[in-house]
Amino acid sequence: MPSIVNVFVVSPDTRSERRFDLHITVEQLKAKLELVTGIPVQNQKIVVENGDGQMTAQLADDSKQLGYYGLSDFQTLKVIDTNPSTSFTGQLSDTSQVEKFELSDDAYAKRTDSVLAYKQRHKMGRFGTPSEPSPVPQVNIPIGARCEVESTEHGLHKRGTVRFVGPTKFAGSGVWVGVEYDEPIGRNDGSVQGERYFTCRSNYGIFVRPDRLKIGDFPVEEIDFDDEEM
Which residues form the Ubiquitin-like domain (predicted)? Predict the structure, then answer.
C-alpha cells in the first residue's frame, strides 16, 4: 500500500497541491501547513473533504498518523483559522478595505509613463500627423481664352470661352474648367449644386476636365438648329 498521498491544501489565502507521508502525525502535518498557509499551528483546524466538498473527517487528534484517518489521493485538506485576528488570514484576498487609487484626467494627462504619453510621443492614433491634402495640379489655361470642347457627335464644334479654372465642391479632387458656350448647348449657368463659379446665361455653361478641351483661336461658329433637330 502506498505511503504517500497527493492532496489539495486550501486556506483563506492559499490553494496548492501537496504530497504527504501517511506515517506523519497530525501535529507534524500542522507544522508543515503553517509554512504553506501562514496559519499558526495552535490556530489550525483541519478537515478532510471529498471531491464534492463534503467533509469526511476532521484531524482532531494531533498524535494520530494521517493514515489513521483514511486519507487518500486527491482529497482536500481544508485548513481553517480559528483565530484570524492574530494571524491576519483572509486579508490578502479581501480587497474591500483596500484604498482605491484614482487619478483625475488632468493628472493622468501630465504623466510621462502612461499609454497616453506613449501615443503622443510616437504620434499614434489621434495624435498622428494628419495627412496633407493632395496639391492641386497646375493647369496652364488662361481665363478668357477661346476653346473647343471635344464632342462625340460628328461635325459638332462645341466652342466657347474659358470662364473658370480650379477645384470645385461638386468633385472631390482635381481641376475643372468652366466654359461659357457660344450656343445654348450647356447644362448650367455657371453654378452647380448652389455654388457659383462664374456667370453666364442658362444652358450656356459647362464644366469639363482640362484634357477634354483645346485652347486656340476658335472663331464663333453658329449652330443651325433646324425644326427636325428641335
Answer: 5-86
Burial classification of residue 26, based on how many CB atoms lie within 10 Å of its CB (0-12 exposed, 13-18 middle, 19 or more buried): buried
DSSP per position, 154-165: TT--EEEEEEEE
Query: Which CATH number goes with the domain that contains 51?
Result: 3.10.20.90
- The CA distance from 125 to 133, in Å, is 19
C-alpha–C-alpha distance, residues 129 and 194, integer Å: 34
145-204: pLDDT as tens digits = 999 999 888 878 899 999 999 999 998 788 999 999 999 999 999 999 999 999 999 999
Q: Look at residue 177 and tell me if it is in a domain.
A: yes
Task: Determine phi and psi for 175, rounding to 5 degrees.
Answer: -105, 140
Task: Using alpha carbons, list the distances in angstroms from residue 211 to 98, 171, 174.
Answer: 74, 16, 12
153, 210, 224, 225 from 228: Cα distances, Å: 16, 33, 11, 8
Cell numbers linked to 103: 487619478
pLDDT digits (tens, 9 = 90+) for 34-63: 999 999 999 999 999 988 888 999 999 999
Long-range contacts of 23-26 (CB under 8 A, 24+ apart): 23/65, 23/66, 23/67, 24/65, 24/66, 25/62, 25/63, 25/64, 25/65, 25/66, 26/59, 26/60, 26/61, 26/62, 26/63, 26/64, 26/65, 26/66
Task: Read off the pTM.
Answer: 0.41
Domain that holds residue 53: 4-87
